[in-house]
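Kindly review this protein for my students:
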Amino acid sequence: MRFTKPAWVIHQDGTRSENAKRLSIFSVHVHPDGSRIASGGLDAKIRIWSTKPILNEAAEAANKPPKSLCTLTMHTGPVLTVRWAHSGRWLASGSDDAIIMIWDLDPAGSGKVWGSEEYNVEGWKPLKRLPGHESDVTDLAWAPEDRYLASTGLDSKVLIWCGYTLDCLAKLDLHQGFVKGVCWDPAGEFLATQSDDRTVRIWRTTDWGIEATITKPFEHSPGSTFFRRLSWSPDGAHITASNATNNNGFVFTAAVISRASWTSDISLVGHENTVEVASYNPHIFLRDPSMPVVASNICSVVALGADDRSVSVWQTKSARPLVVAKEVFERQIMDLSWSSDGLTLYAVSSDGTLAVFAFEKTELEGIAPPEAQRQYLSKFGFVPAPLPKGYSHADHSLNGHLNGQSTPPLTPPTVHQGGFSHTQPNHHGEQVTTLIARRAPRGRDRDNLRRRIQPSFEGNLTGPISSNPRKLSINMNTNAPDFFPPLSINSGNNDIRNSMDIDADFGVDMSVPISALDTRGHKRPRGDPQSITISFSDEGGRPPKARTLGGDRTRGFGTTDVREIRRFTAEGGSLHLQGIDSNETLPFINGAIGGNALPVPSLKTFLETRIEETGDTFEARNSEDVSEPSEVSFFASKEKNVQWLDYLPSPVLKICASSRFCAIAMDDGSINVYSLTGRRLMPTMTLGRSISYLDAANHFLMAITSFGQVFIWNTKTSSALHPPTSLLPLLSPSPPSIDKPNGESPMVLSAIVRPNGAPLIQLSTGIYLSYDSNLLSWIRVGESWWANGSSAWKGRQRSTTSAGGNGFGTGVIASIEARMAEYANVDNGKMRPNWWDTAMTLGHLEARMHAARVLESPQEYRQALLLYTKTIADEGFRGKAEELLKDLYGPIYWRPGKSDDTWCASILGLSKRDLVKEVISIFVRSKTLFKLAQDYQDLLRRSVADE
């Protein structure tokens, strides 16, 4: 076996210096042809690397093929998972921006990466953006034959996407905790997912119902791992799941779950910390290569990566690992991936490095041929559903075998009637399956596929409709295409006719004759007074398209010029308002007397906002004649026409939108809230003053008036989160302080609402504020004061290390502190009292935990708690340590399911009993706190045993 750690495989921060900092790599996956790997990291980028320079020293020295092939930069948060499709043509990626991206090869996409010095040798373009998760996307997996794509997230959901159309087919939401791992049964019958709720769930692919739930190996597993990546053996007989434990949680293992009984009687023991990821070699192995492929003669190879910084490789025919590589990394392993030939294992770590284990064939002997593996899987007897009509798999070669040239264009397939020819010259032996949609038929073939529906309603045509119950007979004349399952089929060219009787009870006497409803201007035949024929087809036989409000207008139909509109006072004089970045207040606004606490934005002729999750656009247009009505319109990203519009009596001052709703604030101080289809979700709200700030996130809308009143509503429940509260007390001049000797008059620099409904206000004094609805008070969630002495202050540097040494990226609080660095006035040379740094650090971390609770950032809460714990342990503060343990442990006789109004067993979705285990593991290393930690450890063991 050869071991390699290429230093040039790196995700780094934005600096261009030679000492650029390595950032965590969260995922790695090998392309099916073995020529390239994809990695995703904390820099929010996907990088594609050539494998030949990794495995061949001469190729590395010659840089042929190039080491770095492509950098993809569409995600706005750290990339947590990357997975190639089995066909090799598509790459799926998931990020903490809650978005899944599907990437496709772009033959003309090579060139310099925007905003950097990097150069893309080959191009990959975003094929489709898949919104659907409400939080971080933690893992992805392609089903056999790429029939499905499964995704998991920290929203506790599993989403199933069609592998052909990329439409969302199912949402599985039975997990009660973060879902951190997913894998497919190689036979295609089941899907397995693993969650922080300490379960592995097995789902049927036929109806997406639960087949089994496995809990026993995970009852005492810690909730501290970033992933719980599990893997299904290539023979379909076993699942190896990560983060399992034995001996009441004190022995870390990987659990081997049997398909026959969905139980785990086998554990892979040896790692000194939690197992983060399991990955099976894609091949089955023969115990005796001279014997046939039968159950008694096959085995599998599985690799494990753990938080003890080691990698182990196991062959299931042996009770001991084949390889144990200790201290391969400086931090925990995040992902593992085998090459398709089964001889190379790639591993990545949160320390930002890649390690490669290249085995000889003699070391992993007995690889069964792929055909034997397919025959073995057929013994399960599962037959998957047929492929969707209109799609086929076509073989292409991914040319340009990384020879220093950009990837040449793929030859377009030749079009034949009824489909594609799908061959292309293969110069390098690389076979990549590509999915191609068939072209729609034209001419007569298209007419034959057309569907005509002509129901006949029997009723009184000439007189008023009676209020008595009446039977309606509906006859449908349908020419159905072969991909619509007809209800009944007649031979030849006869119509397909379906009839059904409906009892219609008209409870209202409508005296208007039906003939008055004929809008075409044609007289109807009088025929049978009990019969009417209504055609749902146009004159060409095509079914009519659904209409949208304003659908005759295309994108960009009106003015997009942004000009400032001058207001007029009641006396007729003009008054020009300053923009939102001005600190000038106005003596008069909308006839109200008195000054404004906040500046009012100027009126513009055009406003636009884009919904980040979907790419939809919300626009507003104001006339320069303020007496004319204003207009708002909504465009879906996939459509060219207006989806809906509305007219308003007052000029539009501010607009905002989220993936749930749109909102506008008018110049007269009123607010309208719309659904994404244009329905008014709430009545028009009048706030009495013009709006200075308007923001939306998830279901929540925040408005701040020019008088400083803050309103926050939940548009889903049509309710306010709390009574209106004022910013005015926060904007009064501040008294002199250490970092502001002359005092300062604060100004609002920005105001947004978080997805949980918490406001986030940035002041010019270097303070960030939020509102705690439990305390009914404004609280500080960030302030530059802590830069004067806290050792936990990171400033502009992105913190990638928690107290436990785990890199989890940045969150809202870390972003706040990074922005506050410019306001921090630090005098490092000034003499400080004794204990200054310790007191500042503890106070800073306590403030961080309170801020994380209000802003609902569980990962940052945990990071601050562990760093707080370590500081207490280092200083030996027994009083603080005991108080912290009591708070997290709770009442001694508390048990799960027991109601207790005085103590909550979780915080931000994190179990306090799990957190106290981590706290104890830190305190037990302190000489001062060892006895205290040991007492609570014994107490915890007894309580677990009693449960």
